UniProtKB/TrEMBL annotation:
Pfam families reported in the protein's UniProt record: MmgE_PrpD_C, MmgE_PrpD_N
GO MF annotation: an example: lyase activity
MmgE/PrpD N-terminal domain boundaries: 20-260
Entry protein name: 2-methylcitrate dehydratase
Source organism (scientific name): Streptomyces antibioticus
């Protein structure tokens, strides 16, 4: 790996393109060779994972709205597929609809380092463009692995959350790079596309603060749509704000650490295998990733606590990020509101711990149902749960060794009689370093569980066969990555939506 130091430069420096971060990211994309075997296998897992959660969210309102918008933009052949409908649409709109479907349940992969990310969000726009341009499964694999490489490098090197910038800014750059790798575009073209995408996808984290809205699902889909449009413009010869990262009025200078910004981004050397996708991990539970280990911990503690009406208080000792983003340190009263949106509840670790402690399980729909959130016993327990930052858990969260990195915490439960029950869990059971690391069989089981009643068993088999042979698929074989559903029933559901402009 090569360490690239990124800082602000005044315009008078005339920073050469080859020294700019956007160019270096573009070079990683255009230097992509044959995929590493393990990386390719993990990419297949994530294609399966994305389809699992997309199918489970087909009839949720934000997904239906995004699909309705997309279907209004029918494409002349070839176009791209949209989950849940036979209509082919323009690729940027397919990315919009499919990206929303994948993100809606907060149930696919994650990578946490200096910043946060859901790298699986790269896949919908890449798949849409692959279909539209007649690329093969091998081309798509190359794009996915390159996008993950860029995404993970940016998340490791540049913290956005510290400045309340939403993490999709890194996603946009990764998608543009992945598209460049898949389409084998010149470095110059990819460089321009990355800069355009970063410039247009920089937004605040208010989308994940307070009363969290459906935009949380739309945000990565918007980044994918913007990246496709940026690549299209760059291919036509259009240029971008430059240098978008290092400029004196650019991203670092005004959005991040200011004129004194100094970041280190580590990128692979030319010819070095792209293996960053292996550092990422998926979710067993439909909740924010930093709640995954907390759910497993609550299930374990349930056997020790006895009647929950005897609990006086629960304190979760955890990392800075967990405390301030999904814990009581966020100072969001909505995180304790029984009428809060699903999006808010899946970013409330006190709520999640309370439900997991009561139920001993977690479900992507039942655990968030309005009646479940308003259950009096749950509300009573929920409001006894707080979080505190523990410097040791913060240190472990940022440990450079992925085998020692920890995203969990320690629970201290005090009962009415004064007795104390304690336990801790560093990583979720499904984490690569956890008790039951997710493997192909687990991804397959997740797919079958989430698509039950939506995709027939034969349809499940056809999809899994296509996904598992991704690297060998011809261009028309990519259609097999869209599980067959009852499209007439989906259309009837969508017909009940309020009408918009399109």
């Amino acid at each position: 790996m090569i360490e690239h130091h990124v800082r602000v430069h005044p315009s008078a420096d005339r920073l050469p393109r080859e020294d700019q971060l956007a160019w270096k990211l573009a070079s990683v994309a255009t230097d992509a060779g044959e995929p590493d075997t393990e990386s390719a296998a993990m990419a297949v897992n994530r294609v399966i994972d994305n389809a699992s959660v997309a199918m489970a969210s087909l009839r949720r309102r934000p997904v239906a709205v995004a699909r309705a918008q997309a279907v209004a933009h029918r494409a002349t052949a070839p176009g791209a597929s949209v989950f849940g409908t036979p209509t082919r649409v323009s690729p940027e709109w397919a990315a919009w609809a499919n990206g929303t479907a994948v993100r809606e349940l907060d149930f696919h992969d994650t990578y946490l380092a200096a910043d946060y990310s859901h790298p699986g969000d790269n896949i919908p726009p890449l798949l849409a463009v692959a279909q539209h341009t007649g690329r093969t499964g091998a081309d798509l694999l190359r794009g996915i692995i390159s996008a993950y490489e860029i995404h993970v490098a940016l998340v490791k090197g540049i913290c956005l959350h510290e400045h309340r910038i939403d993490h999709v800014a890194h996603l946009g750059a990764a998608i543009a790079g992945g598209l460049g790798a898949m389409l084998r575009l010149p470095t110059e073209t990819v460089y321009q596309a990355i800069q355009q995408t970063v410039h247009t996808t920089t937004a605040t984290r208010q989308s994940r603060k307070g009363e969290i809205s459906s935009w949380k699902a739309y945000a990565p889909a918007f980044a994918g749509k913007a990246a496709i449009e940026a690549v299209d413009r760059a291919m036509r010869g259009e240029t971008s704000p430059s240098p978008v990262y290092e400029g004196e009025d650019g991203f670092l200078a005004w959005m991040l650490d200011g004129p004194g910004s100094d970041y280190t981004v580590r990128l692979p050397e030319p010819g070095e295998p792209r293996r960053a996708i292996l550092d990422t991990y998926t979710k067993e539970h439909s909740a924010e990733y930093q709640a995954q280990a907390v759910i497993d911990l609550a299930r374990r503690l349930r056997e020790k606590t006895g009647p929950l009406d005897t609990v006086r208080s629960v304190v979760l000792h955890t990392s800075h990020h967990t405390h301030h983003v999904i814990g009581s340190g966020a100072n969001d009263p909505q995180k304790y509101d029984p009428t809060a949106s699903r999006e808010t509840l899946d970013h409330s670790v006190p709520y999640i711990f309370a439900v997991a402690l009561e139920d001993g399980t977690w479900h992507h729909e039942r655990s968030y149902a309005p009646g479940r959130a308003r259950r009096p016993s749950t509300v009573e327990l929920w409001r006894k749960i707080t979080t505190v930052e523990d410097p040791e858990w913060t240190r472990r969260y940022h440990d450079p060794d992925p085998d020692r990195r920890a995203f969990g915490g320690r629970a201290v439960i005090t009962l009415d009689d004064g007795s104390v029950i304690e336990d801790e869990l560093a990583v979720a059971d499904a984490h690569p370093a956890g008790a039951r690391p997710f493997d192909r069989a687990a991804y397959t089981a997740k797919f079958r569980t989430l698509t039950e009643g939506v995709v027939t068993p034969a349809g499940q088999d056809r999809f899994l066969s296509a996904a598992e042979h991704l690297g060998d698929l011809a261009a028309d074989g990519l259609d097999g990555l869209f599980p067959a559903v009852d499209t007439e029933a989906v259309a009837a559901h969508d017909a009940c939506l309020p009408k918009g402009l399109f």
